[in-house]
Every structure is written in structure tokens, then in C-alpha cells.
Amino acid sequence: MATSHLPTRPRPATPATAVPPSNAKPAAHRRPGFRRDQLSGWGMIAPAAVLLLAFIFIPAILGFGLAFTNARLISPRPVEFVGVDNFARLFTDPTFYRALLNVAYFTVVIVPVQSGLALVMALLINKKFRGVNFFRTVYFLPVVTSMVVVSLLWLFMYRKDGLVNEILAAVSFGLIDGPDWLGDPNTAMPAIIILSIWQAAGFHMIIWLAGLQGISGELYEAAQLDGTSRWQQFRYVTWPGLFHTRSLVLVTITIQALGLFDQISVMTQGGPMDSTTTIIYEAVQSGYRQQETSYASAISLVFFVLVLIVSVVQRHLTREKD
Q1: Are 261 and 192 in contact (CB under 8 A)?
Q2: What is the pLDDT of residue 288?
Q3: Helix, coil or strand: residue 297
Q4: Which neighbouring-strand residues pair with 69?
Q5: Residues 277, 95: contact at Cβ < 8 Å?
Q6: Residues 203, 117: contact at Cβ < 8 Å?
């Protein structure tokens, strides 16, 4: 007997769920809120952007343009384009080369000494012991003091009858007669270096301390289980862990050293016999005292190029190698 097949009712097709394309625009009701967020963001960065534009970018552009003119601070003569005359004068000026040599001497000495001292201070206060906050405050106190105030204080200390010579005489039982620190060309720059290290070491100590506290304690525990000494822990755990901090500290100290000005302006005014003059000090002297803004702009432009070259070279030498 043949089996008859009953007709089946066709099922209604299920509508496919529409998937919005990835580049679909947000719903209309979200647009006002998104635009408000954008406006709020632009409003927050506007004050900083205006300040950067007014005090960084516009002066830099104007300084670049003035370096190729004969502009003076106050002069009835119109400004004229003179080409590279200011740079030709600069590179034949012996005072500029003396300032360049002084800055190089200051930088070569202060970068390793200040960074090393700051690292030692950071290692000392990285321990947990009673009174550690007191020592952190004492080490950091010179940083929050104005450099002008510090320079005036050390100016009296460096006098012939000042505190430094009195301490030397007391320690040596009168055998050492201290020099006129800021009046002697042989001791003026070393005196500035000692002051600068004392004032700024605390700032870089904080940077080193932040790097030290970012190293995992498990690494030190593993090193102790392996029977390593403290020096080996520093060499193989601490020092590699401070790689990025080390680069930041070196670049920061170098830029600050190349821009040496406040101590010189307050304490020595570039003397004696140009033994402490610097590039920034010469630019300020030319621009304000001698009113040669074009020549000062040329000095500033050369200084910018020097700082850029030194920073790039230093960054290349301290880069992370694979």
C-alpha cells in the first residue's frame, strides 16, 4: 500500500538581524554629548596652548628671524636684513669660545658627580628606618629654595673671611688659609660647581628614588636566595632596573648644566677674567645690557643647536640595546 505524503505548510522566513557596519555613525542622540566632551577637552588645553604659543613658539620664531637682522632693543634705525653677519661675528669672538669651554667644563664635571651623589642619597633613604622622612626632607630642602637666595647665601660663605674658609682653618688648626673662592679664576668655577651640586642633587634623588621603588622586591629575594652580595644585587638587579630612570636623569642634568645662568649672574657676573661666563649669560648681556637683540638671538640659536646635538648624542648612547 503506497504511503501518501501530506503537504507541508511553508514556514515563514525569519528576518535576519541587521548588523550595523563598523563605520556606522553613532546615534543622533549621542552626538550632542560627544561634541560637549570635545569642547570641554579643547577648553581644558586652551590655557596651556595659549601660554605655549605666547611664550615658547612665537618667541622662538621671532628669535630665529632676529638672528639674521641688525635689530637693537632701542634704536631709531629701521631693522635690516644682514644675513649671517651675526654668526660670523659670534664665531670670531674669543669670549664666546671661552663661554663654550666653561659650559663644557661645568657639564663634564657636574653630570657624573651630581647624578652619582643623587643615586647614593636615594639608596640611603630607600630603606625603612626611623626618621627616614626627616632625611628625605633635609636632602630635598635646597631644591625648594630659590637659586637666587642660595647663590646669595653661598656668596657670603665664599668670601675671604666667610664660613668656608673659617671651617677650613678650624679643621686644619690654622694651617690652611682659604683662597678668595670667587675672586680667583682657578677656584671660581669649582666653587660654582659645588654650589650647583648641593642645590640640585635632591631633585634628582627623588627621580632615582622613584625608579628604585619601581623595582620588584621579588628580584632581590631571588638574588638573596642565590647568595649574592649587596654589590652583586646592585650590579645585576638595581642598575639594570634603573635603565629608563638613568636616561631621564642624565638628560635632565645635562640640559640644566648647559643652561647655567642664575649662579653666574648673582655671584660672579662672568668673572674673574671670563672664567665663569656662559653662553646664556653672554646672550643676556648682549640682549639687555648692550641692547643687541639680533646678536643675542644668534647666540641663543647656536645654543639651541648645541643642546639639541648633545641631547641626541646622549640619547643615542643611553638607548636600550637589544
Answers
A1: no
A2: 86
A3: helix
A4: 81
A5: yes
A6: no
CA dist 103 and 189 (Å) reads: 10
**Do you find a cis peptide bond into 190, omega within 30 degrees of 0?**
no
Three cell numbers at 187? 677656584
Q: How far apart are CA 166 and CA 159, in angstroms?
A: 10
Instruction: Give the span between the Cα atoms of 162 and 304, in whole angstroms.
Output: 38
Q: 93-96: long-range contacts (C-beta < 8 A, 24 or more apart)? A: 95/274, 95/277, 95/282, 96/279, 96/282, 96/299
Three-state DSSP state, 48 = helix
> Rounded to whole angstroms, what are the CA distances from 5 to 2, 8, 9?
9, 9, 13
What is the tens place of the pLDDT at every residue in 248-277?
A: 898 889 888 988 999 999 999 888 888 999
DSSP label at residue 227 = T
Please tell me the predicted confidence (pLDDT) of residue 177: 82
CA distance 206 to 144: 13
Averaged pLDDT, 243-252: 88
pLDDT at 1: 45
Spatial contact of 39 and 46, defined as CB atoms under 8 Å apart: no
Q: Which tens digit of pLDDT belongs to each residue from 79-122? A: 888 888 889 999 998 999 999 999 999 999 999 999 999 999 99
Q: Specify the 3-state DSSP secondary structure of 81.
A: strand
Q: Which amino acid is at 109?
A: V
More confident residue, 153 or 312: 153
